[in-house]
Amino acid sequence: EDGKKIGRTTKLLKPGEVIEQLDVRTIAASPLECDVKLEDVESFFGQFAKVNSVRLPRHVADKRLFCGTSLIEFSTEDDAVKVLNESLVDAGIELELKLEKDFDAERAKQAEVVENSCFQVGSNHKNISNAEANMSTGDSAEENGSPEPASDNVDVQKTDGGPDSTENVSEAAENKVSNDTKDDEDDPGENVEESVEKVDVKTGFESEGKETEDGDKYLDSSIQTGENKAKGNERLTAAVYKNKDIVSREDLKGVFQKFGTVKMDSQGDAYYTNLFYEGSNLDDQFEMESSYQAGQYFNQPTDLSVESSQIPAQMGSTMKKGLRSHNFTTEEDNLIVSAWLNSSLDVVLPNEQNSKTSWQRIYEYFHRNKNFTSHRSSISLKARWATIKLAVNKFIGCYAQIEARHQSSVSEQDKILQAMLMYREMHQASFQFEHCWNELRYQPKWLAFVQKKKTKKLSSASPCASSPCTPDSINLGETDAQGDAFVDLERPLGIKAENERFKRHRNIEQVDDNSIAVLIKEMKVEKKQMNEKMELLERRYVQEQKRLSIMQMQFQMEQQKEEERIMSVDTTDMPPLQAEYYKCRQKEILDKVGGSMPRE
DNA sequence: TAAGGTAGGGGCGATTGATC
DNA sequence: GATCAATCGCCCCTACCTTA
């Protein structure tokens, strides 16, 4: 305004320089837990220096998953250097810290490997194994600077997922060289020496894959012995054999033993192939002391898996197949109920939000909050909840029926006893979940759940609404006094479902003309009946009005007669008080008549 | 934009087999 | 022998992606 030129005191940096500065201020920290939050990372590193921002990059192979490494941008380069030189431990695990550019470089490599593997995945049902093998191949080829097609490399894999797979594997291991030869026979362009050389190159067992056969289990593992040795850290390393896929059971035992007692049976051979990707064998060969122990193992970030924190702590589902554990205790039941109530309402989470299932969360809640010994797997908890839910639902019905009787002078305890008796009569079994019912009965989530069930039943049973109710339909029936107090948290229909519904209705309209005609006829009849009713009511109303007016006239006539009588009374011979009364009444009447008469 | 396909996930009944 | 935890398979629902 005063004519003086103003400008920045400090010159703006060029974009490239900004990025460069950002790079030196940003460090990558790993391994972090899969469900780690931005705030957690920020507060953790905030203890050491001022944090500008935190990023949680996704995995290169699966964008739904956190890659296990967080990028922390500090306010100054000095801060970044200071933290980089620190030896930080999070959740008992020493964090590996590196500059962002190093992390980016590794990530670019990984992306390339994943891309290669995607193109080279075979068409058979063992895509995962192949992809994993190909990734390994890609890496080694890259290291050697001599890219080779994956199919040219030696691949000792089990080719059948059946029970013989272990046998196949051991055979394959024993006859490695001969297999190599066989492979080479298939591909005449290669010779045995070349193959062996390639196997030797692959001393680093690198794998990166995803367990897709079971939707719950994502497994990204990367065993990088070469790197580990170089770093010299003391994290877990699985012994890796010259053949990339073969790990001895002793080595695995050694790895798993750090997290709990591992039982090994005597059967089976000494080698396992692609354990992590196809390895149901693991269940048979190794037994953790508890399923949760196993879960704990998979929660540990180890070098078995640089990004193993992505693996859900759910492993126990098949760990002790066929072994029935002890009965559920009241505490366990209550904790399951509590876990269910505390878990998210929306059980179907979008993929990009969280790959964990609601039962995984319930499982974690259960084991995090237990103050007793329990090794239940998520499947056990789920099954138990199903039992609890069913029984409590039935009991609610019984209790509602007892309530509906409106018995006077009956305490709540008596009602519960009666409901229990009714339950026993109806279901030939005693109700064993009173403790759960007490926990659940007033909880909004439970009430919403019950209501949802009820509406579902009503809608599905609407065509036969007059049909006799089943005990269960009575259970959740209109007498459920709690039903009105809930907030409707039911999810709306999805687009597709809504369209289906619309289409169905449209189709019904188009196709069923006859039924529409019948409906119209019925409606006309109904209308006629309604009109008749209305006429009847109107007639009654008019009659009633007439009757009222007649009564009113009668009353007026009687009143007039009375007034005339009062006016004609002679008060001369009456006692003074009586005379006074009549005079007052006569005056009143005169006033009334005078008021209504036109004045002159 | 609608339709079709696929994947993820839950519910539920039947079955199995260990425990009571 | 009864009970009940664990498992399995089927069905249904929803969201997302691809294709016409």
3D architecture notes:
The chain is elongated and about 130 Å long. A hairpin with a 2-residue loop joins strand 4 (89-90) and strand 5 (93-94). The protein has a 4-stranded antiparallel β-sheet. Strands 4-5 form a two-stranded antiparallel ribbon. Strands 7-9 form a two-stranded antiparallel ribbon. It starts with 14 loop residues before the first helix and ends with a helix. 54% of the residues lie in helices and 6% in strands. Helix 14 (330-342) crosses helix 15 (358-369). It has 600 residues and is mainly α. It folds into 4 domains: 15-109, Alpha-Beta Plaits (2-Layer Sandwich), CATH 3.30.70; 154-318, no CATH class; 330-485, no CATH class; 569-596, no CATH class. Residues 1-16, 117-323, 344-355 and 459-498 have low confidence and may be disordered. The protein has helices at residues 15-25, 38-46, 77-85, 100-120, 127-144, 165-174, 176-186, 192-201, 225-231, 249-257, 275-278, 281-285, 291-299, 330-342, 358-369, 378-404, 412-427, 434-440, 444-460, 471-475, 495-511, 513-567, 576-596; strands at residues 26-30, 51-55, 70-74, 89-90, 93-94, 96-99, 246-248, 262-264, 271-273, 286-288. The longest helix has 55 residues, at 513-567. The protein has 23 helices and 10 strands. It binds a DNA duplex (20 and 20 nucleotides) through residues 215-216, 317-318, 320-328, 347-351, 355, 357-359, 377, 379-380, 382-384, 386-387, 390, 429, 491, 493-497, 499. Residues 182-194 have a biased composition (Acidic residues). Pfam families: NAM-associated (PF14303), RRM_1 (PF00076). Residues 129-139 have a biased composition (Polar residues). Residues 195-219 have a biased composition (Basic and acidic residues). Residues 129-226 are annotated as: Disordered.
